[in-house]
Design brief:
WD repeats lie at residues 289-322. Residues 1-27 form the signal peptide. This protein is mainly β and 335 residues long. The protein has one helix spanning 2-27; strands at 37-39, 47-52, 58-63, 67-72, 78-83, 89-94, 99-104, 108-113, 118-124, 129-135, 140-145, 149-154, 160-165, 170-175, 182-186, 191-194, 200-203, 213-216, 222-226, 230-235, 241-245, 252-257, 263-268, 275-279, 285-289, 296-301, 307-312, 317-321.
Length: 335
């Protein structure tokens, strides 16, 4: 009996050790720049999307339970909270300074009037919505779905325009800064470029892993994607890929270009909620930002490049001021 109790005890210690190691990996315990602001408990069960307003004075966030929040930058004061969606928010885009476009996994697409805090309009599509984009050049909303469909709707009337079938789940969408080209990644590891009529322009060189999030460079010459352990860059003239290794220990779930285009911020997810500011050309790490307690979900630069905002499954949103001297610290009270 004593030997059985000893074995059980050893198993408990082994489980505790593995759990502690997992949390350590998820948080990133090496010296890094702490957040200037940590806003806890923003969304029950975690943050799923972030989007700065065009002016950078506000940031919108979406949560796992379908709720939206509007926060001031940089003090984090909440000025609005809305519940237009039933499932996790999978898309969040500022149309302009007054209107916010959002989409939930249940298929609802909503437009919020920020000043009044009211729901301007809402469209019910079908369940399995994974991603959202806005083609400003032609005022079209684009939605991708788990069934492989890609649909466009007019804004603000929500009239259907195009539907195409890609044959595999749509993972991520991105629109160039002219609002005329659409990038799409799929579950079967394709990355495609479309024009505003959803005519395929180019199939980019196939990556070795699924592209989890897509972003165009500020000059629209490159497309970048996060993947497991790596970041992919495509030259949009040749369609050729270059691969950059990262310090992340799992999936690079979210990333964003600095407005100048010379830097990239990356956020890990599985066993790694670390943030890394890297040189976009070389991949050299310029700053390590303290990670979240639980897996990362979304990261964005402010329009002026001063702040990085990140959100996580730990329900927090964090702001990091990149104009401050880089003074990495061990994990402390901010973790």
């Amino acid at each position: 009996m004593a030997s059985i109790r000893g074995l059980v005890c050893q198993c408990k210690y082994a489980v505790l050790f593995l759990f502690s190691a997992f949390l350590a990996g998820c948080a990133g315990l090496e010296p890094a720049q702490p957040p200037d602001l940590n806003i806890p408990s923003t969304h029950l069960f975690g943050v799923t999307r972030l989007a700065f307003s065009p002016s950078g004075t506000l940031i919108a966030s979406g949560g796992f339970k379908g709720d939206l929040a509007i926060l001031q930058v940089p003090d984090g004061a909440q000025i609005g909270k809305f519940q237009w969606h039933r499932d996790a928010v999978r898309g969040l885009i500022w149309i302009d300074k007054e209107y916010l476009l959002s989409a939930g996994e249940e298929g609802a697409i909503a437009v919020t009037h920020i000043t009044s805090g009211s729901l301007k309009s809402k469209l019910e599509t079908h369940a399995g919505l994974t991603s959202l984009a806005y083609l400003a050049g032609t005022s079209q909303i684009v939605a991708g779905y788990t069934d492989g469909s890609l649909k466009t709707f007019s804004y603000p009337t929500f009239q259907p325009i195009h539907t195409i079938q890609l044959g595999a789940e749509v993972v991520a969408l991105a629109v160039d800064h002219m609002g005329r080209r659409l990038a799409v990644s799929t579950e079967d590891e394709r990355v495609l470029l479309f024009d505003q009529k959803l005519s395929e322009v180019m199939a980019l060189q196939r990556p070795s892993r699924r592209a989890l999030e897509l972003r165009f460079s500020p000059d629209d010459s490159e497309l970048v994607a996060g993947a497991w352990y790596q970041v992919f860059y495509w030259d949009l003239v040749s369609g050729k890929i270059r691969v950059q290794e990262t310090e992340h220990w799992g999936a690079v779930t979210s990333l964003d270009y600095h407005p100048k285009g010379d830097q990239l911020i990356t956020l890990g997810r599985h066993t790694d909620a670390n943030l890394r500011l890297v040189d976009a050309a070389s991949g050299h790490v310029q700053r390590r930002l303290q990670g979240h307690r639980l897996c990362g979900a979304a990261v964005r630069f402010s329009p002026d490049g001063r702040y990085v905002a990140s959100g996580s499954d730990d329900e927090s949103i964090r702001f990091y001021d990149l104009t401050k001297p880089y003074l990495p610290q061990r994990v402390g009270d901010n973790w």
